[in-house]
Write a structure and sequence with these properties.
The protein has helices at residues 57-63, 217-224, 230-240, and strands at residues 2-5, 11-14, 27-31, 67-79, 84-92, 106-111, 114-115, 125-126, 146-148, 160-162, 165-169, 175-186, 193-198. By secondary structure, it is mainly beta.
């Protein structure tokens, strides 16, 4: 079973991530605004779309404040090895002028209700937990894993983004489990945030292991069924033509 909570414009497939300066070349993007707005260059420090999709209680607990414009992808899967790994990048227009404020947009990846998307220091992934300070360039939590894009050094719209992080959980019991990707605005409906999910990185072995492993059929079928996500890739190709 699978479900997408959010508007069709909030999600999309992306490609050419390496050329844009991301550490992920292609996959799925989920945003609080419009997926098409992720395409660079960085022409605005305040790109915003109010999707009107409401909040998410799990993300509100992470942000420590109310959330809105939530975009959620969730589905069931079957664990064969008991281990699960997934690669992603979190990005936002909230960087860096809203660091250490109440506009603490979060991302989480819940497996059976447990958030496994954590920054290198073990904290949740949110504006206030991964940054290089305000203004950018000062010290900040997990600063070594943050990329400032306020000057447009990278060919994406967002003002900052993380390195590639790996979410993982070990020792799942055999049988069915539930996974939930969720991103949302915190405290207001402005300044979009997004998560880039690496294609084919949903595996049962550590992605640092050179042995290739295909993503489970449950995820592949889920993505094929997400017809609303196809538009982003097409719009991007036209823009780059």
């Amino acid at each position: 079973m699978g479900e997408i909570i959010g508007s069709a414009t909030q999600g999309g497939f992306f490609s050419d991530g390496f050329a844009s300066g991301l550490g992920i070349d292609g996959g799925v993007i989920l945003t609080t605004g419009a997926a098409s707005d992720a395409v660079g260059p960085n022409s605005s420090g305040a790109t915003s779309v109010n999707s009107g999709t409401g909040g998410d209680a799990d993300l509100a607990a992470i942000a420590g404040i109310s959330t809105m414009n939530a975009n959620v992808l969730q589905f069931d899967f079957v664990s064969d090895t008991g281990d699960l790994f997934f690669n992603y990048i979190f990005a936002s227009e909230e960087y860096s002028e809203f660091v250490d404020s109440n506009f603490n947009d979060p991302f989480a990846l819940f497996v059976d209700g447990q958030n496994i998307a954590l920054a290198p220091d073990g904290n949740e992934v949110a504006i206030n937990n991964v940054n290089c300070g305000n203004p950018a360039g000062a010290a900040g939590p997990n600063c070594a894993f943050f990329n400032d894009n306020t000057g447009g050094a990278f060919d994406i719209e967002y003002d900052g983004f993380t390195d590639v992080f790996t979410a993982s959980i070990l020792g799942l019991s055999a049988g069915n489990h539930t996974i939930k990707f969720a991103v949302a605005d915190a405290n207001d409906a402005g300044w979009d945030s997004a998560v880039f999910i690496q294609g084919s990185s949903f595996t049962s072995v550590d992605p640092m292991d050179p042995t290739p492993v295909s993503e489970p059929a449950s995820l592949s079928l889920m993505l094929i069924g997400m017809t609303g996500l196809i538009g982003f890739s097409r719009r991007k190709n036209r823009k780059n033509a």
